[in-house]
Amino acid sequence: MMTVVTRFAPSPTGELHLGSVYSARIAWQRAREAGGTFLVRIEDTDIRRCRREYETAILDDLRWLGLHWDGEVRRQSDHFADYGKVLDQLDARGLIYPCFCTRADIAREIAAAASAPHGPDGPLYPGTCRSLSNEERRHRIVAGHELCMRLDAARAAEQAGPYSFVDETRGRIEGQPLLMGDFVIARKDTPTSYHLAVTVDDHLQGVTLVTRGEDLLPSTHVHGLLQKLLGYAAPQYAHHRLLTDSEGRRFAKRDRDLTIRALREAGKTPADVFALIAAFPSKA
Ligand code: GLU
User: Fold this and answer.
1) Closest protein CA for atom 7 of ligand 1
2) Average pLDDT for residues 111-131, to the nearest whole number?
3) Per the residue annotation, which of 188, 253, 268, 283 is the catalytic one?
4) 5: domain CATH number?
5) CA 221 – CA 251 distance, rounded (Å)
6) What is the CATH number of the domain that holds 100?
7) Is position 253 annotated as part of the catalytic site?
8) Which residues, other chains included, contact 36 with Cβ-Cβ below 8 Å and sequence gap of 6+?
9) Residue 234: inside a domain, yes or no?
10) Which of 4, 60, 171, 181 has minimal CB crowding within 10 Å?
11) Strand, helix or coil at 264?
């Protein structure tokens, strides 16, 4: 039988709150009940928003809660070279291109278009830089224009062919490679993006079961695309409901009174925290 490997992968952009502990506990529990491995990974590719203090606080809160992990914590910013290698492979296959657009350029382009295709997070990138000539690209790079790299989703879909993934409660889902359009594969400031780093890490770390909030279900479509392109085995998925407050709002890092820090300072025990979580509704 295959060993179960799960992971909790917080971004250190704030303190741990009840919503994230709910998610962490599912990953921890699924590993423990299967006699498997529970990993913790720090997803700090957004280097402007991530803080080392938050990372330290998150790990300390997890320990305090008794959600002990196996092995070393993997911090994504220590592994940019791994993502860079994969980026080079995609580049060699003609699947990525530099994009010089600012947010304002993109908004202007979308406003001028008769109809703009929409994805789960709003209008999709209109593809402005996809057709730039190599000469124009060189010219802009030499002139010092900032750039990010995007995946040419249509080309990637063609190379990958059909693919699917399995979500425990939803069953087998046909992959939609164009769902997020030409998404960012490497940010302006780091040689990777959330989608690339997650896909590479889940593969390198041998994750067999990805447990995460259902808000990330659209992302799974593009992770599936990258897995298929790169020849990675797809893990199984369990997208769980999101914990919400009594008004049905999901927790956010701004809800300071529901951070584990604040609850600890108020004298709560780990058992109190889990009881509190159990008392909150989770959104269908
Ligand atoms: N780092 C992501 C977050 O904090 C989670 C990514 C994942 O579980 O795949 O939202």
Assistant:
1) 9
2) 89
3) 253
4) 3.40.50.620
5) 24
6) 3.90.800.10
7) yes
8) 3, 4, 5, 6, 30, 208
9) no
10) 171
11) helix
Q: How many alpha carbons lie under 13 Å from residue 121 in its C-beta half-sphere?
A: 11
Residues 46 and 117 reside in one and the same domain = no
9 CB within 6 A, ligand 1? yes
Print the domain residue range for 167: 79-199
pLDDT per residue as tens digits for the range 157-169: 999 999 999 999 9
Question: Does residue 216 fall inside a structural domain?
Answer: no
> What's the pLDDT at 253?
61
Query: What's the domain count of the chain?
Result: 2
- Nearest-5° angle of CA 26, CA 31, CA 33? 95
Residue with tokens 């040689």: 191
CB 129 within 8 A of CB 99: yes
Residues β-bridged to residue 171: 167
Structural domain ending residue among the three candidates 148, 175, 199:
199
Asked if residue 20 belongs to a domain, the reply is: yes
DSSP assignment letter at 232: P
216 in contact with ligand 1, CB cutoff 6 A:
yes
Domain termination site, one of 199, 231, 262: 199
**43 within ligand 1 shell (Cβ under 6 A):** yes
